[in-house]
Every structure is written in C-alpha cells, then in structure tokens.
Amino acid sequence: MTRSILARLAAAATCAAALGCSKAASSSAVTPADAKTFLDAVNATTLKLSVEQAQAGWVQQNFITDDTEAMEARASQAANDAGTRFAKESTKYDKVDVPADQRRLLNLLKVVNVLAPPADPKESDELAKIMARLESTYGKGKWCTDASKPDTCKTVEDVTRILAAPGDEPKLRAAWEGWHTISPPMRKDYQRFVELSNKGARELGFADTGAMWRSKYDLPPDAFTKELDRLWDQVRPLYVKLHAYTRLKLRQKYGDVVPANGPIPAHLLGNIWAQEWGNVYPLVAPPNADPGYSLTDILKKHRMPPLDMVRTGERFYTSLGFAPLPKTFWERSLFVRPKDREVVCHASAWDVDFVEDVRIKMCIEPSAEDFTTIHHELGHNFYQRAYKDQPVLFRDSANDGFHEAIGDTIALSVTPEYLVKIGLLDKAPDTSRDLGLLMNRALDKIAFLPFGLLIDQWRWKVFSGEIPPGQYNKAWWDLRLKYQGVAPPSDRSEDFFDPGAKYHVPDNTPYTRYFLADILQFQFHRALSKIAGCTLPLNRCSIYENKEAGRRLNAMLSMGLSRPWQDALEALTGSRQMDATAILDYFAPLSSWLDEQLAGKPVGW
Ligand SMILES: [Zn+2]
C-alpha cells in the first residue's frame, strides 16, 4: 500500500474554521492570474505539509509511542484541513478561463477528496467525531466468547487464523458470526456519516459522496459505472467456473452445509470476507499439479537474508533500465522487525520528500509471499521516482488502480524461467505442471474480483439513497449474492451491520481501486510480454532484462497524474480502454481444465 501526495491531503478531512474553511467567495472578481497564484500557493503548501506528514508518519510507525502518535495526528490534521480548504477555494475559479493543465489541477483539487466535511463548523465537528468513533470501534473490535473474561476475546488476526484453517465447520461458523458482532454498534453512526458527508459533497457541487468518488476517473460518473460493469462481464464466466469447482470440492469436504447448486456459505472460503480463497487451496488443488518446487523452501534453503531479497527485487527493475534505488533507500528503509521497539509491520512504500527519499517498511520473512510483496512495494517506489519531475499535484498514479497494479505486474514476471535465470532454481518444470500455480493464483486474484467490485456498489447506492438505512444489511447480502455467489451462514436481519465488519467501510477507504488494479496488472503484463516478444503461455512470460518493455513502462509511469489515465494506458498498452481479457488469456489453461471437471455439473447459483 502507499498513500499519494493528494490522498494525504484529502483523507478524512475535518474543517477548522480558523483556516478560513468557509463557503467559497463569489467568483465575480477573480482573474486567470489569480488562479495561477492560487495554484502556485497550493503546490508549495501541499509539498510542505505532505513532507511534514510523511516524516511524522514514518517516525510514528517506526517508533509507536503516545508522543509520536500525537505528532502524526497533528501533521495529518494540518494537511487534511488544507486539502478541504483548497477544494472549496478551487470552486472560485470554476468560470475563469485558464490553460488546460491548470484546469486539470483545479478539478483535481475537488475530486481528490474522499470526504468533504460540511461548511457548518458544528456539523463538520460532528462528522470528525463520528469518523474517529467508527475507526476506533473497528480497531478495538474483538469477538469475546465470555465478556467477563477478557482473555477469551479474539482480535481480527485471531479470527483470520481460525478461518484460514479449513476443517471444523461449527468452529468456522462461530468465528465468522463472532467477528460480525463488532459492527452493529456502528450502524447509527454510519447513517449519520452518510448524511453529513453527502452534505459536504453537495457543497462542492456533487450529487452525493459516491458521485464525488466516481468523478476522479476522467469519465462522467455514470460512464465509469458502466465501464466497471463491462469489465466484470468479461471475467464473470471464469469466476463462475472457479466458484462452481470450489463449491463442488467444499461440498465433498463439508457435505450438505454446502448446496449442490446454490451460493457458497461465506465462512468456508478461508477468509473472514470470502475475498481471497487461497487458504482453501489444499481442498481444491488439481491432482498431480505440484509444480515440483516451492519458492519458500528455496529461499529458506539459500538462507537468503531480507536485504538480499530486496536487492533481488531491485535488480528486476534495474534490469528493465530503471536507475538503482538511492543510497538513502538502503539506509532509511525498515526490512526486519526490530527487537527493541513496537513498529507497524504491515508492509508499505513511502515517498518522504516526494522527490528521491523513497523507502519501504516491512518485516521480511524468507517466504514466497514476502518475496512477492517486496516486488509490490518496490513498484510503488519506482512509480514515485518516475513521476518526481511532475508538478507537485501530478505526483501520483494515472488513477488509483495504477499505483497498486505496477508491483503486482512485475511479480507476474517472477516465473520459473526467471528463477532459473537468477540461480534460485535449477530447471523450470514442464508447463503441464502449471495447473497448481494457476489455481493458487486464481483463488486469490479471480476470487477477489467480485468482492473488489461490490464494496463500492453498496456504498454508492447507500450514498445516493437507493439503499435506505432500513435495508443496509439486506442490500449488502443481496449484492454479495449477486456478485460473489456467497451467502451468510445464518440469517442476517437488520439488527446486524455486516458491511461494518470490513475495515474499509468504517475507515471510509474507497475500494474500486483494488478491482481496477487486479484487472490492470494482467493487461499490463500481457502488453509488456508482447513488447518483450514472449511467445510462451502468458503465465510463463517474464520481462526480466527487457529494456524495451522497461522503456514503455517508464513512459507510462513518468506521466504521473498529469494526463487522463486513458493516455497513460495507451502509452504502455496502445489501448485507451481497460481490458479484462488479459485475465482470460493468462488463465486459459486453468479455464479449459475447469470446463472438463465441470462437465455435467451445476454451474452458477
Ligand atoms: Zn500497495
């Protein structure tokens, strides 16, 4: 994960009256010169406040104490206040005739907000308190089997571990239901949050908060919604097959709890939210599909230190022609869990000065998963460096799906042939052994797609009022059934608030970016493989050492946010349209195999 320069300014903003955060003044007196002066000031202030926030955030996450938390909160508040102020002030220039790049900057200031607090200071304050309460309700959320005994209480990590181990159905059901007890107290707050945030969005000229979120994609909001439907329609047939085969295997394991042709119970897919299914791989593994090697075992056998794993990741990017990471990256990054202090180990990539001071923060273990995560985080860093010469506000990815997709694209090039090339594997297994690798990957990447889509489908309808508060939970399960084909393990009335049991809902983080990233990484991989002249099956293509692929990748990355994402996409892929057919190409061998397995069997729900 990473946070862009604008997102830092815009996230969860509260409006301080002292900063002049009132409704925009009349536009009658402003001139193009005023707009230029305003944008220059915004650029300078944004850079200053973002650097301060990044420094405070880095220290806080690397030395967790009450004091560093307070310092980080102060720096965030200053940046958030400025972001809200800029959004409102930018409306003053709506009718001023300015050059195209300045118009793009002015629009950006408005659409980048995730939350727009209402101008009324009392309402703005109420909204800030609600947001803090929602986040802490989630953060402190625990499933307690006996409330009088705190040591029976389980955190989200505990529940995650229970659900990750297939086997004992009643135990899985209890854990699933247990975790969903954390969210009913959020319902009232969430309803009020919707009212207040919509009010703020309307003050910025949007129909509601959902329309504000959709407006940042260089398309009319409704056209963007249609675009998502189109992408989902492309991959849905493959998802439905994966769903049917997984259901078949889960039914063999759990019996009638799993219907022969209905939705899959949500507690049996190895994950609290049934969003990634990799943990049920042992139940659905194709026979004789062992690839013959395990990257985790190789890393352990070579006793590869964390620093060498990162160097290996860096070497992939430099093999494409990117400059090596700066000396400060190696001096300032965190690679191993320190013994002497509390740190946030959740992997992240940083761009502290928004020029050259890039870093990662991870507690690296010698595992295939961490090896992939290193490539993911470095993707953020190389993107950040590629756009460092853009004006401050354009130092971000083409759309928010792009930033998350780059490192994953590179990770798709970590193929058996690549491992042979860098000396970690003696011989690449025959492609007939690929089914296991493909199934494993599909359980994470294909299974995630409908989930990545539906979170915001629910929120957009909630913001627009199409889903009224009295139907929050019913609508949630209707969408989960429609997209994922999953059902709750027991009746879920409106006494529950199941969306709140997923972090990104109380935290108010938009989610469509993860759906887009999942689609884009395969589209990027297919385009780069073609540029590199790869004629192997797409899942065996690696762009390692291919300078032309690197040049085209850099052409896209270096544009940052300065142009509509369609231009950036075209620079790399030659197409102006997102396209999920690359996923179908990548998983073609698995798809044919699923067809054989499912002959005569029920498919769909
Ligand atoms: Zn990321």
Labels describing this entry:
two-stranded antiparallel ribbon; 605 residues; binds zinc ion; mainly alpha; two-stranded parallel ribbon; single chain; 3% strand
Describe the structure.
- With 605 residues, this protein is mostly helical.
- Helices cover 56% and strands 3% of the residues.
- It is built from 24 helices and 6 strands.
- Helix 5 crosses helix 8 and helix 15 crosses helix 16.
- About 4% of the residues have low confidence.
- Zinc ion (ZN) binds next to helix 15.
- What share of the residues lie within helices? 55-70%
Count of runs of 4 or more consecutive helical residues: 24
Strand content: under 5%
Broad shape: globular
Strand order of the largest sheet: 1-2
Number of β-strand runs: 6
- Structural class computed from helices and strand pairing: mainly alpha
**Which blocks of ≥5 consecutive residues have pLDDT under 50?**
6-27
Integer-rounded radius of gyration: 24 Å
Q: Which small molecules are bound?
A: zinc ion
